[in-house]
## 1
Amino acid sequence: MSSEPAAVCGKDSGEQSALHKQSRTMYPRVFAVDLHDVDGDRFQDSRQAGFSWYVLTTTLLVSLSVISIGWSFGVVNISKSIICQISPLGPGNTHSGEFPNRIPFSNSAWTIAVGILAVGGFLGALVSGAISDSIGRRNALVVNNGLCLAGSVLMGTATTAVHFTLGRFVIGIACGVASGVANTYVGEIAPLKWHGFYGSFFQLSIVIGLLFGQLAAMHATGGTGWRIVVAFPGVFSLIQIALLPLRVESPRYLLKAHHINEARHALLTLRRGYDVAAEWQESLLSLDVVEINASNVRYHSDQWSATAAAASAVPANDQADANALDKNDSKLTMKTKGHKAVDDNVAASSLTFAENMPVERATHVSGVWQTLCGRTRDDLRHLMACCIVLMVLQQLSGISAILFSDSGVVRDILDPFSPLSAPWTCVVVCGTSLPAIFLCLACVDRLGRRALLLGSLGGMSVCCVLISAGLFYGPNSMVMAAVFLCYFVFNMGAGIVPWFIISEVIPSYSLSAATTLCCSLYWVMSIAIGLMVPLIENIVPQWLFVIFGCFTLAGFLLVMLFVPETMNCPITEVVKKHSGNIHVVVKPYRRLNASGSIGGTSRSLLELFKC
């Protein structure tokens, strides 16, 4: 266990410099700079790339899909009395060509209409990996926004309960696809040092969608204004359909699909001003052996072989013209004495990697079952277990019971005083959680993932104890304070890290399978919690948060023992250190002081947050 500051997986600046110099001799020189200036010593490794406006604007654009998820959940949390009419509609509302002010719903029909969003989300998450692997991450989001637009139109024009429920189901499928593809896309384009920052935008977008969806529903009090509110995610979809095709595709997906020139162009666009040679090589290493070999063959035939042939076909005194031809080739320059030497270097590096791989694993298997059983190139069972546990813990922490106004913990305390108190409390809870997310944005790439997860789950355990004590003995003010604090600390780690840590620990060849499984489990647990919480509240309401507290405490222990730290750590190193069966990642820390006795107790406590 390394105790040095984690700059790049625990390596200090001297080691990073040595590794960077070594990478310049191992990898071909690839620069995202103007071709008249290609001195490799003057450009930083792209794995240390800093803030990028291009990546930020792309992430914000993708986040509109995630805002639609929060909006779709929040808008029906408050608007039941606005949309529903239990009695039959009057004659004027059934007139042809006229949209009724309200739709006739029975209580059971409304419950189905609300819950079917999660069912659609589960189905969408199941197919999200297949869609993103077949047409690409960016294109999958564009197509999915068409589905979201269709669902929005169906809900906005609904005249019957079935019509409205169908719209909720369609937009639920779109939410499920977005939950899987958006995280994968952002995780693959984000720089290593800012991966947590950009990955945290997912939870930020959900909370923003919940907040403004509930606010909009509360103010849609008359006429058909609720139709505009429920159909508003279609506006987000139109924006993305228009602008997303202007952004680059994920370089890792393009490599996986053997589109080498496009992958190179995308990486140069995302890392302009940095040397991308080492990151390019790591992208190749994260693929399966069959994919790597196919990529190398096409890489040579499409790019380097053509350039080398052009250079050898001209006389020696015209070598300058050949060099000029090379410079015009998509802003890709290699610092070497000749094109043939560069081509040999790439080929030697690729062949060396392929020859070192076990023969029995030189097959392309990346399905869900193969990944769970460790039958991929790397044994990913431990890392998959960590991702699954973190995703399931989001729902088992009881956050859904806290957030929505139909939950007894908020309704039973506040409804006797005012029917609007519970909805407004849910709005305020979402609003006060925004500072927690912004604080996490600032700390996630400094403190690390484990520290935030442990602090968040530990804090939620304490809050569950306070809520339970307040429900048993009072006062109600303690319950409400604990509710606010619980959602605050949830958004400090447990609600944010699980969404982006998947792309930090799972290589590209199994990323779609892992994302599909984890996001599907998230939606399944959302359905299960929605069904189980009312039953528990009817039987033993005071014990509800005792159960959630046990889950969060168990999650704290599991994270402390099994979840590795991934901050500033390339996927290849995470997989190398933590592949295999489930194992404990925290090792005992023992240090002899000057007198020969064992010391460093406080230091050992700090080591619990790192691995």
## 2
Amino acid sequence: MLNKYKAVVAWHARRIQDTSPPAKRRKVSAPTCDTCNATLSRPFVCLSCSFAGCWQSGHVTSHLHETGHSFCVDTRSGSVFCADCDDFICDGTIDAAHLSTVLLIEEQMTRFQVAKRPREPYQPWVPSESEAALLKESTVLPCQGRRGLLNLGQTCFLNVILQCFIHNPLLRNYFLGDRHNTRLCKHTDCTCCEMDSLFSEVYSSNQTPFGPTSFLATTWKVSAEMSGYSQQDAHEFFITALNQIHGTCRGSTNISCNCIIHQTFAGQLQSDVTCERCGNTTSTVDPMLDISLELRGKGGEVGGGENTLAGCLRRFTKPEKLGPKEYSCSKCTKAHEAVKRLSIRKLPPVLSFQFKRFEHKTTSKAVPQKIDTPVRFPATLNMAPYTTLAMNHAGKDGDVSTYPGPEGMYEYDLFAVINHEGQMDNGHYTNFARFRDEWYRFDDDRVTPSNLGACLNSNAYMCFYVKRHLDYKPYMKPTYRVTRDNDIVREMEQEKLKEMARQKEVDDALMATIAGD
């Protein structure tokens, strides 16, 4: 029965992994219900025979009761339904079989665009004899990962960003994996060291609120605009913290950087400007670490009828008319009207969105104000319609409902939300964050259990999404390992030079003694 389960899961995994163009795909009829012949978008398959039926009409459960068969499986989620207990089964063996089968199909069907080689097979970590001996001698400490942060004087802006860093799975794995060791770091005022210490404190057995005094002091030293006890903007501190971590991370560079910040947040925006006279298109690619979204439309109205994250993204990627004074075509060599459109060329593993709620004082606005309009945002987000790849494959009508590649390339899950309460000059920041499958609300030192519904109903200022399926480069050493190996070789060479210098001093002293005699 387990083999039948794996075969059903593999069938569905192959369907969603098919990345060939529609014209080249082999035409396969959609599965239908064996009772009512209705087309099944989510087929349930009996694990004792070849019956496939629909769930909503109850045909698959009727088949189980009539034939005496016990189990059926949802091909999409891999969930197994038991007819005897009239409920779905929660079992670790089934979950492990589903995960291993889907992973195997993804490895078989994924090809890297550059190397043209199959995906590198997943290998679970198996401790060696020495590692197993160390694990036996170690003491297991409970790590909660849910620890409040003390407000050190209008530092709620810092606390919410640190909580989002703490619950970011990529940053968590990096710093808890000892990729940056405070004892071995040679930097002064190192923000990476502060992050390492922060994760050590949060993922410890101590559950009392922690005061990030050292993190705050380091921020003041390296960033003058963030120093002082006045209230700061959480998004500004977010960008400042990313730059500080990048600057003190091992192996960081100014071009094509592969530090943990760029591995986590870095994406690419593409700007296409098309001349309306000759049709010439000029494309420019710029790096991005987050996306700031306008809440006001062209007419100045808030939302424009779409107070949703998807609506803001549609406005962000909507074609914009440029006047003759704003654009000069390189092909026509004359100024003409043009159309400019933004799209996301490269999706980062973690997407950070900021809603522009704060409008500062300008020549057109006499006083600064805050936009309190609620913006709806989803728990799962498909970014395909806003990518350059999908827009290039769209038809003449601009329909991006179909796009190349599996859905896993574009799907993101919400893991943290930052909220701002009050006005610009006297507001307060709080945040929601997901720990495993549970949601919590963080208000400085107060941590309270919450739920996804409360998070989605909150008035968001920033949202953080993590990619459901992460991409990686084939058959390559991670940059932190390359940097570590280079440091070891460099230190060995320095020790060798020092030993040669000491030996030369001894030889010179000996020769001087002989010459004196």
